[in-house]
Amino acid sequence: MSGANPLVDDRDVEFLLYEVHDAQALASLPKFAEHDRETFDLFVASARRLARETLWPAYRPMDEAPPKLADGRVRAHASMHEIWTRMVELGVLSASRPEAVGGLSLPLLVSTAADVYLMAANLSAFGYVGLTRGAAHLIEAFGDQTTREQFMVPMLEGRWTGTMALTEPQAGSSLADVTTKARQLDDGSYRICGAKIFISAADHGITDNVVNMTLARLDGAPAGTKGISLFAVPQRRVTAEGLVDNDVRVAGAIHKIGWRGLPSLALNFGERGDCHGWLVGRQHEGLSCMFQMMNEARIMIGLNGVATASVAYHESLAYARQRPQGRAIGERDPTQPMVPITQHADVRRMLLRQKTIVEGGLSLVMQAARWADIAEAAPEAHVRTRAAALLDFITPMAKSFPAERGYDANVLALQIHGGYGYSSEYLVEAWLRDQKLNSIHEGTTGIQALDLLGRKTLKDGGRAFALLTEEIAATVQDAKSAGVATRLGQAMQDATEIAGALVKDLGAQAKKDDLPGALAHASDFLDLMSTVVVAWQWLRQAAAAQRALAIGRRPAEFYGAKLAAAAHFFDAELPRVGMLAHRCRHDRSFVELDPSWL
Amino acid sequence: MSGANPLVDDRDVEFLLYEVHDAQALASLPKFAEHDRETFDLFVASARRLARETLWPAYRPMDEAPPKLADGRVRAHASMHEIWTRMVELGVLSASRPEAVGGLSLPLLVSTAADVYLMAANLSAFGYVGLTRGAAHLIEAFGDQTTREQFMVPMLEGRWTGTMALTEPQAGSSLADVTTKARQLDDGSYRICGAKIFISAADHGITDNVVNMTLARLDGAPAGTKGISLFAVPQRRVTAEGLVDNDVRVAGAIHKIGWRGLPSLALNFGERGDCHGWLVGRQHEGLSCMFQMMNEARIMIGLNGVATASVAYHESLAYARQRPQGRAIGERDPTQPMVPITQHADVRRMLLRQKTIVEGGLSLVMQAARWADIAEAAPEAHVRTRAAALLDFITPMAKSFPAERGYDANVLALQIHGGYGYSSEYLVEAWLRDQKLNSIHEGTTGIQALDLLGRKTLKDGGRAFALLTEEIAATVQDAKSAGVATRLGQAMQDATEIAGALVKDLGAQAKKDDLPGALAHASDFLDLMSTVVVAWQWLRQAAAAQRALAIGRRPAEFYGAKLAAAAHFFDAELPRVGMLAHRCRHDRSFVELDPSWL
User: Fold this and answer.
1) Which of A136, A293, B342, B415 is the most buried (most CB within 10 A)?
2) What is the ipTM of this complex?
3) In a domain, A481, yes or no
4) What tens digit of pLDDT does each residue of A331-352 get?
5) How near does any CA of chain A get to the CA of B337, in Å?
6) Among partner residues A173, A351, A407, which is closest to B598 by beta-carbon distance?
7) A231: part of which helix (H) or strand (E)?
8) Are A19 and A559 in contact (CB under 8 A)?
């Protein structure tokens, strides 16, 4: 059964790309001028094939045999060598980067549609790509010519890989407390000394070298986030004699419960005093460099969440279609044959809920990717600025909705399998393990929530939120003219108004010197806003489906199911908005609770 | 840190037993007349000590080395031998059974308070007790003198253990489709032939023998549930030459993701035609015998869920208290020391939510246990009948709320641990795995939902629901007179009215020949009712806490935290009732969806 898992629904990807997010319009922008639907489709089709034929068969073997630390080294699963080579050949490392750096100049929207297959097939295998991409992009954006040639080029060519080395054992999410040290040397490089933890893919043996994009503090740097600089710290450094050991020691391997094909390591830099790093960006501006890349990384995590929920959804759908059990309610004749469990309403509920999360989440991530494309490639400055503001605002939702609700979807996929789902002979439990990381890495859900409500809503004075409501209002109009059931548009409008009133009141509270009080329900606010934006994406999909049906486009079942999913999200999920606003306004319990009472 | 985990809060157990559920009043019933608070406390304290000193240290070793099938046999972890002996010595197998069968005649309420520690310490270890208890109780209730002597006595003495052998590979939850065969033999026993799956503890080597309480179909029995009989089918049968093999072969071991200390097996009965079973109860009435025991088993599963959430809650609380990270919102001086993460509102939210689930769930299960005690031991028939009806009605909630919301609590415990929670070096991920089974075994959440809405609400004409609303109304009055904030009582009343109106409307829908439509949202209805009854339990706790504070009982922090938890449940969770009722009334999406469209 697993063999036939499509990973992601091809028809849905086509629908989202062309009928909802109008990928073709992007081809009219100068940056993407060499492309058209044909080249978009070719790239997505190639990634899909690679995902199904090469990454997917390796998923279970990689999950079952995670890399171990032995003699100070970690070696990735043997199948990663071919997978890496094939992914590099396909061009996934720089698909959305310009040709100047060897990229394919594809819209991020299109590379998103390709990535989701690769992630759904094998999250860990794709992890090596994601990290290398992020590291290379950091150097592309902030590095000088030397660091670009020395580090970015080998990474984009797939000869080396990259990592993000931010977290330290004593600091966790609190990057202000990073203590890794850097001291400038005469040759222009820096001596690095410190310890990092949870560094994915910091050793693997797939390529010759690994470049750790490392946050560290220069001697005499200010305390806090304003004294952090960014360095490229390779595992081995280039000398006249070739690559030599750069004193980056693997101090331990974390026994992760998921993503088991991608080693997560503790690193010690400079135990022998011989670890060199190269500054990327300006001194003390490391964290702001990191943050400029963060949207990209967070949207990628959102896509990980969508992909992991998608593959499990398709697995449970296939299972439910062929698993006979019980009979229809009211059928009292036990000699009648059993029916497939899709005939039971509660199983359909669990399947449809998964569908709304997977396809709503994918649409949301694509929306973010499209705004990233506009923010980078639109000719008019005001259009770029607007898209950038919307992207910035929506990022915490695009990261957290797939992580949190995607996890719910994975739980439902397991539940549909009954007792079999509880066994490691089926794969649904593995995706549950994989998914759990997405609410933790690249900023926990709690961190995303503070980012959304604190920085991007209250500090922003609600301007980005107002832009979003304009987008939503336009969709409400569009859905109306497309003939979507009016109760959906009305519910969308009501929910947006509830959110708007809450934003206003929390803003007033923050201004009255109660910022901690205003931020206390940040997680509920994130949940609320996520529900609003995913409902919005479903309204967009409903409008597109209604239009397609009106002109007789096929298959009608595909569009009918889209309308059913939209209705489910509006009738079952969107009412959570009112409830969450109630929580934000009225629940003072944990806010005022003395922690010592617990 | 784990070493100091209390598993369950002692003060909370005392509070629930004596200040909320009035365990002392039970001692005035003739059945429990030999007991008083002192003997109750002694038993609970002994179980608590055994849990902490013996079961808990074995938890991780048992999780790490699950039993394997080798040479047709399965052997439990070596530490189970001592654990089993000690549990038998304590009397847990028959604590709540009468002295006539060697029991301690303790109220189920009190044995619940003891069991929760043992379960929280080591769910798998307790599993052997739970199964043996259930099997012995089945024979006590329905067996004749011979089967009692032959099977029940050795089980209650801890010399043999028991299992429940219901599920078959082709039938799953659909017991109507059980095909295992039974043919009567001249000696009064039956020849059994068939296959069962997911049979926990069917082989282990801890005791000499295992008794499988097996559902099978006599030759010529009617199809469906009315043709099923119950048999005791031992692994080895008693002959003049002692115990001989009874042709019950272990055909496979399930690789479960949790409960890894308790083997789950596939069994083949009668491959050599030499498997004997002994009828328990009357022919063709096996399923109704099973169902009479089901409440007990399901409440035990609920307690499993509470226990698993409890141990993880305490682990995450201890972690949060000692883990420094970041600073208070508004603190801009990075040279200030970091604060423990309990200082962050969102962490307190996650902790308080866990507390409401753990302590609300425990109170709910205790409520069910108390009704079971009254139903069995009250002198007046009408009191027994009323308690039995309430117990029957509340059972699906007592089983499912801890399973479903307990899982949410386990997710939060992991989230609080951040990246460390994602590693198997910490225990929070193990409890997440353990908890997942509770929404599946002993009737999935979907099955519980149909039981609650179909059989116990609509078919019952809402009579049991009306009894429950009487109980809730009494608590609302009591909370008022105790001085609990009036908004809680009002919210309780409103939520109960929403539920009542929904019951009425669904009843009308069912009568209008739309039973499938009325039952379509059974899972949402179960969720709704679970929220109502747990809010009710929190209102009871709030009233008790308010009274304790009024008379200056200590520690005030304990009661203060109870009030905060009650407020949290009312302000954050109870509003879900309105939302869920909206779903039940308005969401037709999956109900009408053609399964082939998915």
Assistant:
1) A136
2) 0.97
3) yes
4) 888 889 999 999 999 999 999 9
5) 10
6) A351
7) strand A229-234
8) no
